[in-house]
Amino acid sequence: MTMAVVWLLEIPGLMATGGLLLVVIGLLIRIPIVIWGSTFILRWVTNYPGIVLLGVAVLAWTAAKMIVSEPVLEPWFATHEAVRYAVYGVVGLVVVGAGLHYQRRRPQGAAQAA
Question: pLDDT (tens digit, 9 = 90+) per residue, 51-71?
Protein backbone atom coordinates (compact mmCIF):
# COMPACT_ATOMS: atom_id res chain seq x y z
CA MET A 1 0.00 0.00 0.00
CA THR A 2 2.75 2.44 0.91
CA MET A 3 4.67 1.71 -2.26
CA ALA A 4 1.50 2.31 -4.28
CA VAL A 5 1.04 5.74 -2.71
CA VAL A 6 4.70 6.59 -3.27
CA TRP A 7 4.42 5.62 -6.91
CA LEU A 8 1.24 7.65 -7.34
CA LEU A 9 3.13 10.70 -6.16
CA GLU A 10 6.48 9.85 -7.71
CA ILE A 11 5.64 8.87 -11.29
CA PRO A 12 3.94 12.12 -12.40
CA GLY A 13 6.82 14.12 -11.00
CA LEU A 14 9.41 12.00 -12.76
CA MET A 15 7.46 12.02 -16.01
CA ALA A 16 7.15 15.82 -15.89
CA THR A 17 10.92 16.17 -15.60
CA GLY A 18 11.68 13.61 -18.31
CA GLY A 19 12.57 10.86 -15.87
CA LEU A 20 11.15 7.92 -17.83
CA LEU A 21 14.46 6.07 -17.41
CA LEU A 22 14.20 6.48 -13.63
CA VAL A 23 10.67 5.08 -13.67
CA VAL A 24 11.77 2.02 -15.64
CA ILE A 25 14.82 1.44 -13.41
CA GLY A 26 12.64 1.84 -10.31
CA LEU A 27 10.19 -0.75 -11.60
CA LEU A 28 13.00 -3.15 -12.53
CA ILE A 29 14.39 -2.92 -9.01
CA ARG A 30 11.18 -2.86 -6.95
CA ILE A 31 9.13 -5.60 -8.63
CA PRO A 32 11.67 -8.39 -7.96
CA ILE A 33 12.12 -7.18 -4.37
CA VAL A 34 8.36 -7.38 -3.77
CA ILE A 35 8.08 -10.82 -5.40
CA TRP A 36 11.10 -12.32 -3.60
CA GLY A 37 10.13 -10.70 -0.32
CA SER A 38 6.58 -12.03 -0.43
CA THR A 39 7.86 -15.51 -1.33
CA PHE A 40 10.28 -15.38 1.60
CA ILE A 41 7.56 -14.29 4.03
CA LEU A 42 5.16 -16.95 2.70
CA ARG A 43 7.74 -19.67 3.34
CA TRP A 44 8.33 -18.45 6.89
CA VAL A 45 4.61 -18.26 7.64
CA THR A 46 4.08 -21.75 6.21
CA ASN A 47 6.97 -23.26 8.19
CA TYR A 48 6.42 -21.28 11.40
CA PRO A 49 2.70 -20.50 11.91
CA GLY A 50 3.54 -18.75 15.18
CA ILE A 51 4.72 -15.79 13.11
CA VAL A 52 1.08 -15.07 12.27
CA LEU A 53 0.24 -15.03 15.98
CA LEU A 54 3.11 -12.61 16.56
CA GLY A 55 1.68 -10.36 13.84
CA VAL A 56 -1.74 -10.52 15.47
CA ALA A 57 -0.18 -9.52 18.79
CA VAL A 58 1.54 -6.52 17.17
CA LEU A 59 -1.76 -5.43 15.62
CA ALA A 60 -3.50 -5.77 18.99
CA TRP A 61 -0.82 -3.69 20.71
CA THR A 62 -1.14 -1.04 18.00
CA ALA A 63 -4.93 -0.97 18.38
CA ALA A 64 -4.67 -0.58 22.16
CA LYS A 65 -2.10 2.19 21.75
CA MET A 66 -4.44 4.01 19.36
CA ILE A 67 -7.28 3.73 21.88
CA VAL A 68 -5.30 5.09 24.85
CA SER A 69 -3.65 7.79 22.70
CA GLU A 70 -6.94 9.13 21.34
CA PRO A 71 -6.82 12.90 22.00
CA VAL A 72 -10.32 12.95 23.51
CA LEU A 73 -9.56 10.07 25.89
CA GLU A 74 -5.88 10.70 26.60
CA PRO A 75 -6.39 13.07 29.57
CA TRP A 76 -8.71 10.54 31.21
CA PHE A 77 -6.25 7.68 30.68
CA ALA A 78 -3.47 9.88 32.11
CA THR A 79 -5.27 9.99 35.44
CA HIS A 80 -6.34 6.33 35.36
CA GLU A 81 -3.14 4.35 34.73
CA ALA A 82 -4.65 1.02 35.79
CA VAL A 83 -7.39 1.33 33.17
CA ARG A 84 -4.79 2.17 30.54
CA TYR A 85 -2.96 -1.09 31.23
CA ALA A 86 -6.27 -2.96 31.37
CA VAL A 87 -7.11 -1.70 27.87
CA TYR A 88 -3.83 -3.13 26.59
CA GLY A 89 -4.57 -6.45 28.29
CA VAL A 90 -8.20 -6.72 27.19
CA VAL A 91 -7.53 -5.73 23.58
CA GLY A 92 -4.57 -8.10 23.44
CA LEU A 93 -6.52 -11.01 24.88
CA VAL A 94 -9.56 -10.43 22.67
CA VAL A 95 -7.62 -10.04 19.42
CA VAL A 96 -5.13 -12.87 20.05
CA GLY A 97 -7.93 -15.06 21.43
CA ALA A 98 -10.05 -14.43 18.33
CA GLY A 99 -7.08 -15.28 16.13
CA LEU A 100 -6.45 -18.55 17.97
CA HIS A 101 -10.16 -19.39 17.89
CA TYR A 102 -10.32 -18.77 14.14
CA GLN A 103 -7.17 -20.82 13.58
CA ARG A 104 -8.59 -23.80 15.50
CA ARG A 105 -11.97 -23.68 13.74
CA ARG A 106 -10.47 -23.45 10.26
CA PRO A 107 -10.24 -26.84 8.53
CA GLN A 108 -6.68 -28.04 7.81
CA GLY A 109 -7.32 -28.27 4.06
CA ALA A 110 -8.49 -24.65 3.91
CA ALA A 111 -5.09 -23.42 5.10
CA GLN A 112 -3.36 -25.20 2.20
CA ALA A 113 -5.96 -24.17 -0.38
CA ALA A 114 -5.69 -20.46 0.47
Answer: 888 888 899 999 999 999 999
